[in-house]
Design goal:
Layout lengths: L1 E5 L9 H15 L3 E7 L7 E2 L6 E5 L11 H21 L4 E5 H16 L3 E4 L10 H21 L2 E4 L2 H11 L7 E3 L21 E5 L8 H13 L5 E5 L5 H10 L5 E5 L3 H10 L2 E4 L8 H8 L3 E4 L5 H6 L4 E3 L5 H16 L5 H4 L1 H8 L1 H16 L1
Parallel strand pairs: 1-2, 1-5, 2-4, 5-6, 6-7, 7-8, 9-10, 9-12, 10-11, 12-13, 13-14
Antiparallel strand pairs: 3-4
Helix pairs in contact: 1-14, 2-3, 3-4, 6-11
């Protein structure tokens, strides 16, 4: 198949959604399909990439100013330049199907492509792009775009989501008649051959946070838990892997409360994040809303214990084996209790239960298996 992939965020731009697109695209190429990705250019990146065993990438110049965050004006700009590019490109280049990331902006472009070139498309939702997944923060945006998003989801051949919670939300949004076209395919991870070479047992008690420093991820609750942990004389260190608009506020909290064992790494290449998984004992993700966290998947697959809130996807991950615990959002007291419990029951006796089931977890969620599921759904549509 010839597959057109649309995502205005593609590594190194953006966060989890871009990495999801990259893994799916690469594995589809390895399965023998031609994949072309149309995304956003950023300073220092090439306009066009076409390497062996990788998807062909076109990076289009739009108004995007920041690598790891954007706004509706950035999306509109990308929609305009992408529509212009595809009007010419698709005359000479034929595709069987289009995979559009996010209802907006990817779905907006895919809908235009379908009308003009009769290319069927699927929407890959990442949670917050469908009303009313994250109602508190995105109410006004979804109120304005509600009918446009509904038109996109109705016109698509399939809508992919990652969790049961996300399916319940999109089923309500599209209506019961269309629920069969809303398909759950989970996110995945790369198999890590270094898993059992981890020196975790020799490391000081290490806590990890991976992701954007935004209100949705609620890093302040994590900091409050760490402050409380430091008061009960349990030695630890913590790595904050990522960046975002809340970083200055977080660093101020760290200084004010003398959390000298906290390190902010900033954004680092995705392939380097695994070094932190291999040395960490616990990943703490206090998110208020989530699609299906790539960080949590990767941590669990690397033998890291998960302390997380019961948002979309986390219960599914922990159902495979008992390698973590869910706590209520904002409850930093219970987060501290769970950290303390892990320290005495697993860290001190070096009895890391999560590592025992990491291999099974990795086999179920590896990207080659996940991409095969997308391939099968595409073939049904094309045939």
């Amino acid at each position: 198949m010839n597959i057109l992939v649309l995502n205005y965020e593609y590594p190194p731009i953006g966060g989890g959604a871009g990495n999801i697109t990259r893994h799916i695209s690469r594995n589809l190429v390895l399965s023998g399909h031609k994949v072309v990705v149309v995304t956003t250019w950023y300073n220092g990146l090439s306009d066009h990439e076409n390497e062996k065993n990788k998807p062909e990438i076109y990076r289009l110049h739009s108004r995007r100013k920041y690598m790891h965050r954007s706004n509706p004006l950035d999306m509109i700009s990308w929609i305009n330049v992408t529509n212009k590019f595809l009007r010419e490109y698709l005359i000479a280049n034929k595709f069987d199907i289009c995979l559009a990331n996010f209802s907006i902006p990817g779905g907006t472009v895919a809908l235009t492509v379908k009308k003009k070139f009769n290319i069927p498309f699927c929407v890959l939702s990442h949670g917050h792009d469908i009303p009313w997944f994250y109602k508190k923060q995105m109410f006004l945006y979804h109120l304005i775009t509600y009918f446009h998003i509904k038109s996109i989801c109705k016109s698509s051949s399939l809508n992919f989501i990652q969790t049961e919670f996300m399916k319940q939300n999109i089923d309500r949004f599209t209506g019961k008649r269309r629920s069969l076209k809303n398909i759950i395919i989970s996110n995945g991870i790369e198999l890590n051959k270094e898993l059992y070479h981890s020196q975790r047992g020799n490391e000081p008690f290490t806590i990890l946070f991976v992701g954007r420093f935004v209100k949705q991820k609620d890093p302040i609750t994590l900091l409050l838990a760490l402050k409380k942990l430091s008061r009960i004389d349990i030695p630890f260190r913590v790595f904050f892997v990522g960046d975002g608009p809340m970083r200055k506020k977080m660093e101020k909290f760290v200084r004010k409360n003398n959390l000298n064992n906290a390190t902010f790494t900033g954004w680092i290449p995705q392939e380097d994040v695994k070094d932190y998984y291999l040395k960490a004992h616990v990943i703490l993700t206090p998110s208020r809303a989530e699609g299906m966290s790539i960080a949590n998947l990767e941590a669990l697959a690397n033998g890291v214990y998960l302390i997380a809130t019961p948002v979309s996807g986390n219960a599914e991950m922990l159902s495979l084996c008992k390698n973590g615990v869910l706590v209520d959002a904002g409850d930093y007291y219970e987060m501290t209790n769970q950290l303390q419990k892990f320290y005495f029951e697993q860290y001190l006796p070096k009895n890391f239960q999560a590592q025992k089931c990491a291999q099974e977890f990795s086999e179920k969620y590896n990207w080659a298996v996940i991409a095969k599921k997308y391939e099968m759904e595409f073939e049904k549509i094309v045939n």
